[in-house]
């Protein structure tokens, strides 16, 4: 670790030079040249969330470098301070004591140097020995080839004693720390959090070669001079560009405590490797082993490595980033949720993009997948509560949950049933569907209005009074030809709005669950234009963006329903009206 200390001392020596060279104009990297920047647009509130993270106006996307430092959680994200479309990207910066209520600070990074003239793109934070944070990020130095010529840079705080870390500098010395040599210059981005092992710091950068997705590993003794490992850390043909790679260790199956990133390669058997696939716009992960000697990652044989693999979220989540919370010893996942409205509508409302509720992630007791659950701090926003127990729902029944603010609610429900005998037969013709879209396609065919045997049953979120609009989140159970059961979870935005201009997909994922106790649980976080749902304790998560015209604010309703021949019992339901989070 003496090497790391030398690095810190060296950085501190650079500071006088840095202050002299901080000048420079912010450059723009615009994808929508026909849409002018507009920082004075009047923001429309109708679809704005109340307890999800979002700025007062304009565009946000990827979460960057979440970390904990001197009593505060820090959150950075990609932000356009000039409008509601992608472009003019800077690093927005906020601090919080609970990851729910936030104080906005000035941007941490803006384009100001030759090595980030056309954009400060995504990256990560690493806490070096001595409690010294460093940001690694992608800088764009030329606009061509599209989407830009990319290099990797670093930034450090000007004052380590400031718990808000309000000022960051990008040293002229040693930046960029990585220039592409053999890498694809326009597909070389999103450096990961670094870890230290066997005398070297290691980090990953996402890339591609033709249609092969690649995560390159780089190593350094001093965190300044980096060299590429002999082989890619991991790669896969047919997957396209790998964005926002993330790699972290797991505790034993079923243990909720997380592990520090710096423990990578130190007596742990299982790891998560995650990438965001540019071609599909989903986040995929595998569970596997880290070969420290050969500097390679190997997914377990039970894990599909590709488009049909495990996802953090089977709906609207992208460019996720995790970090270790040293206070509560947990691994936290942040994910960006973009809009499903049109670009013109986003510009008219003056904002676009939210961040989903931070989630705890840990290894399922089976060891086959992750579990995810909203951080418990969210519960501090719970207000008026509604409880329901042991209510039967026969075929075609729907019951409204009254006494709560249905447009801004946290609902947690447990369903039970007495028999599996009425489960529908799984149609083997469905196996001809693309494997990566199988659950989604079945949800499109077997929606909430299609009567079944065991299901569909679940909730109708953001429903209008006469059900002209609603977003059903539901389960459906199928019996296969080998006498096993498939549990399908759907979040169907098809009927969410009478506005025909919106993207209203039916999302779906299978739930790997033992039905021996004949029970399924569902928790949904409903917040005006987002429905974030966790099936069976977080085994399957699906997020939908919706924009109802009728089911808005006080005109929104919430129901539980059953449209299957098997009677369903709402064993217990808890619903809380949610207070507004502070976003100052």
UniProtKB/TrEMBL annotation:
Residues 1-27 form the signal peptide. GO terms for molecular function: hydrolase activity, hydrolyzing O-glycosyl compounds. Residues 377-577 form the Glycosyl hydrolase family 32 C-terminal domain. Residues 52-374 form the Glycosyl hydrolase family 32 N-terminal domain. InterPro entries: ConA-like_dom_sf, Fructan_Metab_Enzymes, Glyco_hydro_32, Glyco_hydro_32_AS, Glyco_hydro_32_C, Glyco_hydro_32_N, Glyco_hydro_beta-prop_sf. GO terms for biological process: carbohydrate metabolic process. Pfam families: Glyco_hydro_32C, Glyco_hydro_32N. Keywords: Glycosidase, Hydrolase, Signal. SMART domains: Glyco_32 (SM00640). Belongs to the glycosyl hydrolase 32 family. This is Beta-fructofuranosidase. The lineage of its organism: Eukaryota, Viridiplantae, Streptophyta, Embryophyta, Tracheophyta.
């Amino acid at each position: 670790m003496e090497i790391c200390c030398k690095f810190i001392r060296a950085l501190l020596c650079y500071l006088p030079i840095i202050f002299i060279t901080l000048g420079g104009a912010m450059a723009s990297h615009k994808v929508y040249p026909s849409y002018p920047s507009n920082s004075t647009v009047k923001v429309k509130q109708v679809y704005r969330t109340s307890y999800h993270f979002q700025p007062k106006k304009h565009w946000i996307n990827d979460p960057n470098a979440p970390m904990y430092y001197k009593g505060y959680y820090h959150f950075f994200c990609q932000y356009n301070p000039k409008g509601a479309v992608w472009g003019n990207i800077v690093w927005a910066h906020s601090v919080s004591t609970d990851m729910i209520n936030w104080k906005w600070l000035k941007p941490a990074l803006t384009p100001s140097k030759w090595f980030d003239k056309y954009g400060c793109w995504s990256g990560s934070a690493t806490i070096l020995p001595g409690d010294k944070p460093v940001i690694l990020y992608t800088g764009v130095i030329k606009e061509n080839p599209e989407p830009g010529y990319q290099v990797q840079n670093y930034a450090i705080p000007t004052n380590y004693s400031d718990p808000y870390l309000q000022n960051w500098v990008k040293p002229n010395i040693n930046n960029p720390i990585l220039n592409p040599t053999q890498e694809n210059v326009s597909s070389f981005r999103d450096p990961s959090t670094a870890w230290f092992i066997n005398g070297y710091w290691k980090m990953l950068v996402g890339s591609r070669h033709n249609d092969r997705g690649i995560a390159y590993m780089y190593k350094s003794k001093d965190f300044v001079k980096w060299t590429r490992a002999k082989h890619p850390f991991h790669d896969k043909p047919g997957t396209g560009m790998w964005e926002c790679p993330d790699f972290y260790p797991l505790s034993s199956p079923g243990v909720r405590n997380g592990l520090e990133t710096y423990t990578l390669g130190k007596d742990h058997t299982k790891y998560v490797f995650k990438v965001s696939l540019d071609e599909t716009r989903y986040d995929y992960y595998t569970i596997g082993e880290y070969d420290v000697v050969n500097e390679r990652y190997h997914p377990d044989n039970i894990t599909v490595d590709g488009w049909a693999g495990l996802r953090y979220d089977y709906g609207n989540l992208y460019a996720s980033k995790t970090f270790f919370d040293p206070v509560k010893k947990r691994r936290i996942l942040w994910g960006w949720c973009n809009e499903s409205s049109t670009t013109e509508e986003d510009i008219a409302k003056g904002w676009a993009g939210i961040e989903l509720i931070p989630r705890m992630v840990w290894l399922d007791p089976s060891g086959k997948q992750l579990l995810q659950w909203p951080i418990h701090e969210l519960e501090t926003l719970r207000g008026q509560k509604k409880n329901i127990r042991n209510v039967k729902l026969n075929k075609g029944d729907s019951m409204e949950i009254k006494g709560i603010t249905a447009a801004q609610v946290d609902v947690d429900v447990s369903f039970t049933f007495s028999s599996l005998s009425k489960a529908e037969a799984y149609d083997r013709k469905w196996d001809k569907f693309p494997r990566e879209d199988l659950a989604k396609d079945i949800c499109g065919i077997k929606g909430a209005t299609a009567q079944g045997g065991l299901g569909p049953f679940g909730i109708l979120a953001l429903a209008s009074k006469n059900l002209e609009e609603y977003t059903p989140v539901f389960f459906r159970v199928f019996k296969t030809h080998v006498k096993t059961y498939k549990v399908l979870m759907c979040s169907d935005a098809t009927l969410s709005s009478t506005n025909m201009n919106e993207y209203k997909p039916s999302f779906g994922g299978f739930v790997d669950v033992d039905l021996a106790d004949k029970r399924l649980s569902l928790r949904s976080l409903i917040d005006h234009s987002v429905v974030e749902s966790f099936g069976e304790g977080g085994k399957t998560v699906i997020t939908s963006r919706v924009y109802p015209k009728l089911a808005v604010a006080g005109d929104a309703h919430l129901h539980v329903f059953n449209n299957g021949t098997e009677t369903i019992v709402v064993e217990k339901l808890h619903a809380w009206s949610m207070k507004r989070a502070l976003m100052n």
